Amino acid sequence: MGLTKKNPRRGSKKSREPHVSKLYIDISPQQLPIIYRKEYNVHFVGLEKLHPFDARKWGHIFKYLKDALLVNDDTIIKPNEALQDDLLLVHTVRYLKSLKWSWRVAMIAEIPPLALVPNCMVQSSYLRPMRFQTGGSILAGKLAIERGWAINIGGGFHHCSRDRGGGFCPYADITLLIHFLFHHEKSRVKLAMIVDLDAHQGNGHERDFFNHKNVYIMDIYNSGIYPRDKRAKQGIRRSIPLAHLTEDAEYLHLVESNLEEALSEFHPDILVYNAGTDILRGDRLGLLSISPQGIIRRDELVFMKARERRIPIAMVTSGGYLKQTARIIADSILNLYDKGLISGLK
Q: Which CDD domains match (predicted)?
């Protein structure tokens, strides 16, 4: 797959040559485009327990789907790791070099003691899993175009932009997913929509696509929590701020009505769905009050709106900080399958 890096500031001072990425792999017609590998899971000598995030959420989701016989170790799509050359399509050299300092990664991961851990351990235990998840998001874009839909069990690092990480997000996987499609000669993707339904404002991709007419961003988020990024907010085409403890009825009405209007205004070649579950009632970081059934219905609405318009949809799982979120995500994916919104055929 040839990708031309058109912005020399992302690589050397000279224009970079096209390179062949190993992220775009082919799958068999019998495989569902559900993406995961065991390397997604984060582990750094127990320090992950200092963060409220379930660092093995992705493995738990896979186990639930496997127990339900939707996928297994042979049929799950295993992505490759996003390497330096892949990341440079979006990220600056300076930013990627900054990740070689443990104190910088500790700030991004929001685990201060990580600053004392040798960077080689930080790379292998945290950043490498995030690079595999980033590779999974990029692959989800390709498979969505080919199969009509794709789900990366990981990814959704919406607080990371091309030159800045934060909020547990070290790589701009959503921005990369879209730029890979824009740069790939066979995808024919010219217009993209991001529907960000994580509880937090998606300031990373909003900064990256600020004034980018080919990318429409709809973001429904709790306006009273991190990151409160006023500059990034200017990159949102349809911004729907929520109050603390918003409940199912109001939330689902806002999702359905605003997505319907957004898709009437803009006709994307792909819809990237950031399906954060930190909207769940009791999540201390999201501070909303959506039930498990509300999350399942939300995902159903987004897929239904995309599928009835034959818009390819790529889903990433993003935030979700309670132990039960893995079960809810798995139940939602199973519901999408039961409702015929995801299947083996386009």
A: HDAC_classIV
Q: What is the pLDDT of residue 345?
A: 60
Question: What tens digit of pLDDT does each residue of 8-19 get?
Answer: 344 433 334 445
* pLDDT tens-digit series, residues 299-315: 999 999 999 999 999 99
Residue 135, φ and ψ in degrees, nearest 5: -60, -35
159 is catalytic: yes
Question: At residue 149, what is the residue type?
Answer: W
Of all residues in the chain, the percent with pLDDT exceeding 90 is: 84
Domain 30-338 is of which CATH architecture?
A: 3-Layer(aba) Sandwich (3.40)
pLDDT score, position 45 = 59
3-state secondary structure the chain: CEECCCCHHHCCCCCCCCEECCCCCCCCCCCCCEECCHHHCCCCCCHHHHCCCCCCHHHHHHHHHHHCCCCCCCCCECCCCCCHHHHCCCCCHHHHHHCCCHHHHHHHHCCHHHHHCCHHHHHHHHHHHHHHHHHHHHHHHHHHHHHCEEEECCCCCCCCECCECECCECCCHHHHHHHHHHHCCCCCCCCEEEEECCCCCCHHHHHHCCCCCCEEEEEEEECCCCCCCHHHHCCCCEEEEECCCCEHHHHHHHHHHHHHHHHHHCCCCEEEEECCCCCECCCCCCCCEECHHHHHHHHHHHHHHHHHCCCCEEEECCCCCCCCHHHHHHHHHHHHHHCCCCCCCC
Q: Where are the domains of the chain?
A: 30-338
The total of other beta-carbon atoms located within 10 Å of residue 7's CB is 14
Taking 70 as the pLDDT cut, the residues of the chain under it are: 1-20, 44-53, 185, 344-346
Compute the residue count for the chain: 346
pTM of the model: 0.93
Residue 15: per-residue pLDDT? 39
The whole-number pLDDT of residue 343 equals 86
